[in-house]
């Protein structure tokens, strides 16, 4: 059995933890470059009638949805 599975982690979470450990072990200049590569900004757009809608940040959309649900 894989150790990450025995620890209760998903494979993606295991990879994220391992990548963060490697980035933190680097010297400052390579570490800063690696941290920039590690940042992600997911975007999406809804398509209606074959036309693309507004492209939005997934993080911002999730925050807006959480606020809207909290107000209900």
Portion of residues in beta strands equals 15-25%
State the domain count: 2
How would you spell out the order of helices and strands?
A: HHHEEH
The overall pLDDT, averaged over residues, is: 85
Give the assembly state of these chains. single chain
- The low-confidence runs, each spanning 5 or more residues with pLDDT under 50, are none
Strand order of the largest sheet: 1-2
Structure classification:
alpha+beta
Distance N terminus to C terminus?
A: 45 Å
Largest sheet: 2 strands, antiparallel
How many whole angstroms does the radius of gyration measure?
Answer: 18 Å
The count of strands amounts to 2
Would you kindly provide a written description of the structure presented here, covering whatever features stand out?
The protein folds into 2 domains: 1-39; 42-71, no CATH class. It has a two-stranded antiparallel ribbon with strand order 1-2. It has helices spanning 3-6, 11-25, 28-38, 58-71, and strands at residues 43-48, 51-57. The chain is extended, with a radius of gyration of 18 Å. The longest helix has 15 residues, at 11-25. It is built from 4 helices and 2 strands, in the order αααββα. It is an alpha+beta fold and 72 residues long. The mean pLDDT is 85.
């Amino acid at each position: 059995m894989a150790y990450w599975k025995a620890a209760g982690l998903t494979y993606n979470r295991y990879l994220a933890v391992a990548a963060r450990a490697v980035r933190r072990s680097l010297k400052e200049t390579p570490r800063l470059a690696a941290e920039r590569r590690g940042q992600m900004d997911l975007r999406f757009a809804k398509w209606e009638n074959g036309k693309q809608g507004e492209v939005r940040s997934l993080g911002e959309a999730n925050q807006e949805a959480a606020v809207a649900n909290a107000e209900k």
